[in-house]
What we know:
By secondary structure, this protein is α/β, with parallel strands linked by helices.
Amino acid sequence: MKMVNRPLDVRTFMVGRFSRLVVALTVRMPRWFVGWVSRRYVAGKRIEDAVKVMRRLSAEGACFTIDVLGEEISNMEEANFFLEEYKRVISAITENNFDAALSIKPTAFGILLDREAGMKNIESIVSLAKQNNMFVRLDMEDHRVTDDTIQVMLEMHENGLENVGVVLQGRLFRSISDIDYITKKLGPNADYRICKGIYLEPSDISHTERKPIVDATNECIDAMLDAGAYVAVASHDYPVIEHTLEALKKRGMGPNIQDPRKNSGPERPHKGPGYEFQMLLGVRGPMRRKLTASGHRTRVYIPYGEKWYEYSIRRLQENPTIGTQVFKAFVMPWTNRP
Ligand code: FDA
């Protein structure tokens, strides 16, 4: 049985210049308009807004990972904001008994400014999360921080903080060897999110066309599953989700089946049987609900924060193909309901 029905793919009609045009127009629009566009993708400004969204989506059987908006900081004091806000997030999750993890961006904690201080900041959040039985995902940013992000995660494991995992980006050539490297260090304790990668990286280090990006992402999924790692597949794309479902079937994995892989890691609290699906708030809700209804664990990535405007604009400018997706969400809402 096919898990996903493909709607008519209009991608070929709406790429390139058109997408750039949508982005160029959107970023010139008043703040309220950008806010209106991003309303479905951002929970709001405050943790209370994210709590409301989690209450609503909990009823749909989803679990969550929470992202406080904001990225690279320009001085170490700015990291204090993220430290305090993530503490609030941990309290809110615990008080409301939500099934939720944290997603953090290493550059927001100062990893590029002062590695040691940045590492300490991250460690304090991972440690507090551990005391509260919570998992922390280090989001993967652009290629300047790939090495540091992986190393920070490995150092945390060495320091006894195993409630942390990293993201790898299918588009980067290096990701497949990063899986080998991390497997050698952590074995089946490795816990990945795998995505295509939002940052448009140069062609000497990454795939730049759609098909090779999809193929490379699928190759990473296979390699992670074969390594016995926990695999969170973060994609809304049919060829990636269909490939994952096939890959799971081949390995005897699936909903309500204890992870059958001989090399699989320990059972993890608040996790699926060796894998889960992850999607962004507001994107392809029907597909997410279908996966949940079939018993797959599905996690919604919930961004919130005062920096919603900067986040929305930067994301649009960094990767103008999002323009197509925003447009498509408006003219073909049935393909992309929240
Ligand atoms: P694709 O871009 O082909 O999207 C498939 C369809 O999904 C589109 O046609 C559209 O309908 C819909 N869609 C996808 N994204 C949308 C959007 N933003 N708005 C509206 N519609 C959208 N990247 C990264 O570099 N580092 C990271 O840490 C993460 N973390 C992360 C977490 C989670 C939970 C997700 C889902 C994604 C990420 N990403 C990420 C982003 C990821 O790398 C990728 O850029 C996006 O998920 C889009 O790629 P898809 O695989 O969804 O395919």
